[in-house]
Design a protein that fits this description.
Layout: H1 2-32, E1 36-40, H2 42-45, E2 54-60, H3 66-76, E3 82-88, H4 89-99, E4 102-104
Parallel strand pairs: 2-3
Antiparallel strand pairs: 1-2, 1-4
Helix pairs in contact: 1-3
């Protein structure tokens, strides 16, 4: 249990120090695949706590392989406090209607 708390502490510190870099990296990956990146969830709503993660949606065209994009994103952003969701455009439109509050990463 102690190791888990140490992991959380380390992940939180890494996130605080590198969040802008991670968001920029995910935006760049989305754009590389003719897509967009969005942030949503508690971080955007102001309810972020030490136990929270940061939810990112990468919306890509329907003809792009989601797993390939996820693999690329995880290769560059290994902090598990960032939850990366990869959806094709048609699924992302439905998802955005469900979550209601989201913001494009610029």
């Amino acid at each position: 249990m102690h190791r888990y708390f140490e992991y959380l502490k380390k992940s939180k510190k890494d996130l605080e120090e590198n969040i802008e870099k991670y968001l920029k990296t995910l935006k760049t990956i989305a754009e590389k695949h003719n897509g967009k990146a969005y942030i949503f969830g508690s971080y955007l709503k102001g309810g972020y706590t030490a136990a929270s993660d940061i939810d990112i949606l990468i919306e890509i065209p329907d003809n792009v392989d989601r797993l390939r994009v996820l693999h690329e994103a995880r290769k560059h952003v290994q902090n598990r406090k960032i939850e990366i969701h990869i959806l094709n455009k048609s699924d992302a439109e439905i998802f955005k209607q469900l979550i209601k509050i989201y913001k494009e990463i610029t």
